[in-house]
Specification:
Strand content: 5-15%
Largest sheet: 6 strands, parallel
Radius of gyration: 19 Å
Structural class: alpha/beta
Oligomer: single chain
Amino acid sequence: MKILIVHAHPEPKSLNGSLKDLAVVTLEGAGHEVRVSDLYAMNWKAVVDAADYGPDASSPLKVVLDSGRAFERGTLGADVVAEQEKLLWADTVIFQFPLWWYTMPAILKGWVDRVFTYRFAYGVGEHSDTKYGERFGEGTLAGRRALLSVTVGGPEAHYAPRGINGPIADLLFPFHHGILYYPGLDVLPPFVVYGTDRVTADTYPEVAKAWEERLLTLESTEPIAFRRQNFGDYEIPSLHLKEGLEAEGRTGFGLHVRG
């Protein structure tokens, strides 16, 4: 496989840095081709501005339309184009990051904001009485897989269904469903390391072993069974889930997962 790792942590010697390095060694050792976008090392610009769109930036700036026009005309900034090319090259994308304030680090959100432009990651496909664009299971990145490798500070119980932080699946749903599945990526169940502040040199080998096992099963792991938008589960154009398709008692984000 061809695997892109998008890494977002400022300290190379951090747990996240170690997991990123272990992923590279493990995957290359298994015969895969690996590329890494280390966002802090790259000094990645985390904010969208007119400079991203070159001569196709309008005044006032219209981020959606300008980004799509620049994408189609080939005038996006070189750093953005390079990341889009990596995504198109990859079979699988791994995101390595800490959960900070219930979400991804700002630099990673900025990578998404700048790289997932209109006409590349969204705004593609037909809109008709039976289809609402190519998204949520279709799109530019369809046929590829994605995996979040996330470190969190609290113990696992805090992220359980009745835990005070909320279920980890709910916290990651915006990234899983709204960012990755939206342009077509199949999303694998996340690899989560809990209680990261209490990981020591003695306990790290257990974490590393679990991570290696996940990495070596990337091709055989079943993705999260998100519902595809244009394949009969949703009313169009309201995009409401049709009555009776959900499991009894299921509500919220879980409605959008089959089974």
